[in-house]
Amino acid sequence: MRPESRAIVAEILQFMDRFADVGDRTSHADERLPSGTPADLELAFNELALKLFRYHFQSNPPYRKYCQARRKTPLTVREWQDIPPLPIQAFKELTLSCEPVDEAEAVFMTSGTTNADKRGKNFHPTLEVWDASMVPPFKRFVLPDRERMMIYVLSPGKDLNSNSSLSRYLSMAVEHFGTKDSRFFFKPETGLDMEELVQSLRTSELRGEPVLLMGASFSYVHLIDYCDERGIRFSLPAGSRVFDTGGLKGRSREITTSELYEAVHRVFAVNRNHCLNMYGMTELSSQMYDLTIRSCMLSGRAIHDKAGPAWVRTRVLDPDTLEPVRQGETGVLAHYDLANWNSAVAILTEDIGVQTEAGLVLQGRAEGSEARGCSLAIDQLMRANRYEKE
Amino acid sequence: MKKNDITKAPAATGDRTNQPEILPVYAVPRGVEFSSYTDRLIEGGSGRLLLRLPCLTPEIMMDIMHKVAENRKKYLAHLKTADIVDKIDAAVQKWLNPEYELRRQAETWLPAITDYDPEMIRLELKRFMRTFRKKELLRFLDEEFDQAAVLDEFRPRKSGGMSRAYGPESIFHVFSGNVPGLPVWSLVMGLLVKSGNIGKTSSAEPLMAVLFVRSLYEVDADLADTIAILPWKGGTSALEEPVIAAVDAVIAYGADSSVERIREQVPGSKRFLRYGSKVSMAMVGREALTADRFGETVHRLADDVSTYDQQGCLSPHAVVVEDGGAVSARQFAQLLAAELQRCEERRPRAAVSQEEALAIRRVRNQYELAALNGESVTVYSSKAGTEWTVIYHQEQGFAPSPLNRTIHVFGCTALEDAPSYIEPYRELLQTVGIAVGPERLQQLADLLGTAGVNRICAIGKMSRTPAGWHHDGRFNLLDLVRWTDIEWSAEQEAERYDPDAE
Q1: Which of A92, A170, A384, B33 is the most buried (most CB within 10 A)?
Q2: Residue B12: pLDDT above 50?
Q3: Does the distance separating the beta carbons of A370 and B257 come in below 8 Å?
């Protein structure tokens, strides 16, 4: 890596270290901030975000051209909010890296369900920052009450898919927070090994050792179907929890989030307040979490809104103008992630959400638009083609 | 149900002056009673309005269907086609008077309901109603029947024998809400073939069909009594099933998904006409790009793009611009962008949903990123929001648009190459707006017709169809009627039994 990149990485790691315990706004009232004040954080965030913007602008020509077309340059961008959010499609169309891509330690790719030959790529010259960004928020939102836990993973780990950020995430979780009995149940040839998982859950139930189930949201749908078909029911030990990520749209059997959590309760006897959803993207280097578990531990009152670490900010924008909406209105989400040091600080998603007092509520991905009558909008045409292929 | 819906008992109109005006968005034969209503509040530049929707039940629907059928049998079935034309014309003449009360209501409230620009609605509505004057209706009938009298009685055929055409006893129309007034077209077709009509309006535009029936009522109450216009949420099978069971024919308009949903409910034995999703495009030849002409060409195309924000299937998704004129295709794109900006200032686009705005953003991003990747594409777009977008492609081609004033401009060396790139859209292509010289029109039209296009018109006229056009390439009235033939042999046979025959 170039010395400039080294310096940037060092500075981000320093920021993370300083603000590791600051993040969600729920805790300010009843918790003393361990280091720094919100004003310090704001200043530090702004400073580092602008530094990263300059760095990307200088080191990444396609990114520079994108910004110049919007008349956004280090001269005109004065606040982190001025940084133009890069649409996530750019990760498919452009090579976004400040370091030579063939020297990257990892390349995380989007699943590419819609267009297999055009997958979004996020290059990580080093995984130091990505890893450092994963650990403290995980502790904060998933395991605020304990150091380690037995983790059963339903989706593939990094040994099976080195290009998946989720796989790395799951492996990191087990390494940093799993007890020695933690296991991965996804087999390369056969997929999720239901039999073994059911047996292991039975053992955990008998031994009274709580378990953290982790996996993609839709993998739970398969697991629940499997258990329902065979009349299998668990009463997982107190403290057990269910972690899902990725959402439930666009799968063969679509269910809603609340249906999923109801089924989780029915099959595993894990209640809603011990379930949480993680929101992560290949195009980012940090994750956001439901506040459910943390808020219950702190105040006894469950807040399901999402929050992330101090190095991530989210803005809710009007899709028409890309100006921020008023507080409480829905819009399209733009994330500003300081950990995304090699590609882009600010990305524009196609996710719809709303900012609340406590954090962020996701309302799903924009499903594409339909014309109001007989004219055919492009999204409908693309959808029609997609169905034909399936 | 929308948040501002209020269910209430009948009457309670109230006479306090600050109360919003109440407008019923249903029209039913005399004698039909509703026991309760839902009001939908509309707020617009011209004040507040309550749209009054009746609460419907399967029993009420059955009663309405029964009355429509009875009234049609007693009255409309015996009217001569020429009389029906006169009555429709009398109603349309009212609409051509700017002071006409119902026209004023439409001009006041349609912009609030649809969010389309008031001036655009005023202009388009006026143009639209003109296509139903007597002479247009007669042309429309003549276009499809050698002699319209076949709708009234058995008429001799050139090949011997006699024939008479019967329309369906009743038709169920499922209207779309994209272009105000379109339901009028469908109702007029139904009346001309002497059918009882029941129409389901879209919540996007529930008003115009009702106002038209009210003007028919002013002309001839008995005729209006053969029509029922009702709003309900599409897919309410408890209401739709009894209607479909009672009618002979169903005509569905709108997006393929909603048309398909209706089709699934219609038994194969009943006539089903669909006007589903289509796309259109424009072609500009070098003849229309001379120094004295290109300005007007751009202006007319901008008109096609901005009329009803491309929500009708007649509006262009893309324009192919030929090399060799006074302006290049790229300059044409820039001029079109400037013209669309002027349109926006004059007649702003309707508000779009978040999904629609995101769809435009997605397409803009796609091509801006492609441009950064070195592809020969340029995106010209409105500064503030998604009001208009022009995407210039150096290479010839066709691409669908996310609509709402988004258009692709493709360069090309010869328009005659079109079949090569429109082929994939064969099933979907409807209108091509064209600006070329006379010597090329025939040949190009043949190329386009072969490629599946069914309407070729002038640029600037794309969203206005004349009476008697082949809607989606088909007949309008002929597709509705069935025929009864009296063969020559029966005629001859009958003669034999004439006691007075020599």
Answers
A1: A170
A2: no
A3: yes
pLDDT of residue B470: 87
Domains and CATH numbers, chain A: 129-310 (3.40.50.980)
Tell me the helices (H) and strands (E) count for chain B, helix number first. Answer: 16, 19
The answer to which of B26-30, B256-260, B332-336 has the lowest mean pLDDT is B256-260
Closest-CA distance, B427 to chain A, in angstroms, reads 12
Those residues whose C-beta lies under 8 Å from the C-beta of residue A142, and which sit 6 or more positions away, are A173, A177, A212, A241, A243, A276, A289, A293
Contact, A115 vs A382, CB < 8 A? no
pLDDT of residue A367: 63
| Amino acid found at B380 | Y
Question: What token pair was written down for B496?
Answer: 């034999």
Q: Residues with Cβ < 8 Å from A251, sequence gap 6 or more?
A: A218, A221
User: pLDDT value at position B5?
Assistant: 43
As a whole number of angstroms, the distance between CA B484 and CA A130 comes to 78
pLDDT higher than threshold 80 for residue B80:
yes
Query: What mean pLDDT comes out for the span A70-88?
Result: 94
Model confidence over B464-494: pLDDT tens digits? Answer: 888 778 888 888 899 999 999 999 999 889 9
**Better-predicted residue by pLDDT, B237 or B16:** B237
What percentage of chain B carries pLDDT values higher than 90?
78
CB pairs under 8 A between A and B: 141
In 10 A of CB B330, how many CB atoms? 17
Give the tens place of pLDDT for each residue, A117-127: 678 999 999 99
Both tokens of residue A57?
């602008």
Separation between Cα atoms, residue B393 and residue B418, nearest integer Å:
15
Any idea where the domains of chain B sit in the sequence? 55-277, 279-466
Q: Among B260, B258, B191, which Cα is nearest to B224's?
A: B191
3-class SS shares of chain A: helix, strand, coil, % to 5: 40, 20, 40
Domain B279-466 superfamily per CATH? Aldehyde Dehydrogenase; Chain A, domain 2 (3.40.309.10)
Task: Give how far A89 is from chain B: nearest CA, Å.
Answer: 7
HSE, CB side, 13 Å, CA atoms: give it for residue A263.
21
Which of B257, B310, B402 faces A369 most closely, judged by CB atoms?
B402
Nearest Cα neighbor of A166 from A151, A155, A176 is A155
Residues of A whose CB is below 8 A from B254? 373-374
Question: Which residue from A minimizes the CA distance to B252?
Answer: A374
Chain A positions with Cβ closer than 8 Å to B:
62, 65-66, 69, 87, 89-90, 93-94, 318-322, 330-332, 350, 352, 366-381, 384
Q: Cβ B353–A352 below 8 Å, yes or no?
A: no
- Interface predicted TM-score (ipTM): 0.84
Report residue A356 as tokens. Answer: 């609340």
Q: Do B368 and A370 touch (CB under 8 A)?
A: no
